[in-house]
Design goal:
Rossmann fold, three-stranded antiparallel β-sheet, 14 strands, binds ligand FO1, 309 residues, seven-stranded parallel β-sheet, alpha/beta
């Protein structure tokens, strides 16, 4: 059972943790979002790659959904005292990951190589690949101009109007080594319940990836991150609306329609199943709220069972 998963941050990390209980972790390849990557204090931060890595390593701060459990923030406080920007909460132990990544990148390694080194050092057996080794930066257009994703999401707390979203650099980017092959040779492809516009969107914006999803013989299943007309977490609703999509599981189905076979919807959205079917996609109705480890495994099992039917 070779599984390839397209993943953003927290929601993806939970489903991947569930999958890794049911399938040998070596058989899972994660294609991670780098549209959220940013530079803070000269360091290269890859929040979604780190969230997935930390979750699969059993180190994720569960309450926040990002960063390392039991981390401290003394460096952040010291930087604030020096008058540096301190709106992005980098933990002291988390900093080691960013120092390591930044140094290796500066020495000429690719983001894929560094990501592999980090996940191996943390004992993660699943492969984690950035969608591209080239920068693809999610930019958000607000009434006062373009913001980087983290400026929008963390600094502005997503509380500004969104007019448009762009993926800077995507045109010139190419898939990281192994990405297209992982989609082509998978038995199943899982699109995690991540923000369709700012987590999955930057992956799909890399030339060749959407085409590979359309061409693969694998069955492609997505889990809707929109439940009952609102995102389970984060600003996905606002961003989908800015892209002219209905903020519902049907909006997700429309976006992924060119290559999607099955869409997992929450029980609360059961009434949308006929609309999903009408789009040529098989709806799978189950509980999708991953409130504990048991629920993560149950959702992963429901997805795998639907794929096997
Ligand atoms: N998210 C926040 O809401 N506030 C933060 O201060 C913050 C810091 C942070 C540091 C390292 C890291 O890997 C992730 C961090 N995140 C933070 C999460 C991140 O901004 C988002 O979860 C993702 O980019 C969205 O998927």
């Amino acid at each position: 059972m070779r599984i390839t998963a397209l993943a953003g941050g927290t929601g993806a990390a939970k489903l991947l943790r569930g999958l890794a209980v049911l399938v040998p972790p070596e058989q899972i390849t994660v294609i991670g979002n780098t549209g959220d990557d940013t530079q803070i204090w000269g360091l290269h931060i890859s929040p979604d790659l780190d969230t997935v890595t930390y979750a699969l390593a059993g180190l994720l701060d569960e309450e926040k959904g990002w960063g390392l459990r039991d981390d401290t923030f003394m460096c952040l406080a010291a930087m604030a005292a020096l008058g540096q920007e301190a709106w992005f909460n980098l933990g002291d132990r988390d900093l080691a990951t960013h120092l390591f990544r930044t140094e290796r990148l500066a020495a000429g390694q690719s983001l894929s190589e560094v990501t592999t080194a980090i996940r191996r050092a943390l004992g993660v057996r699943s492969r984690i690949l950035p969608a591209s080794d080239a920068p693809v930066a999610t930019r958000v257009l607000t009434p006062t101009g373009w913001l980087g994703f983290q400026e929008f999401f963390v600094r502005e707390k997503a509380q500004v109007e969104v007019l448009d979203v762009a993926y800077a650099g995507a045109d010139q980017a190419s898939p990281a080594p192994g990405v297209l092959e992982a989609i082509r040779t998978a038995v199943v492809v899982v699109i995690c319940p991540s923000n369709p516009i700012t987590s999955i969107g930057p992956i799909l914006a890399v030339p060749g990836i959407a085409e590979a999803l359309a061409a693969t013989s694998a069955r492609v299943l997505a889990v809707s991150p929109i439940v009952g007309g609102a995102p389970v977490s984060g600003p996905a609703g606002k961003l989908m609306a800015a892209k002219g999509l209905p903020v519902s599981a049907v909006g997700v189905a429309k976006l992924y329609r060119p290559w999607l076979d099955l869409l997992v919807l929450d029980r609360r959205d059961e009434r949308l199943a006929p609309e999903v079917t009408a789009l040529g996609i098989t709806p799978v109705v189950t509980g999708t709220m991953m409130t504990d480890r048991g629920a993560e495994v149950a959702l992963a099992r429901a997805a795998l069972e639907a794929l096997a039917r």
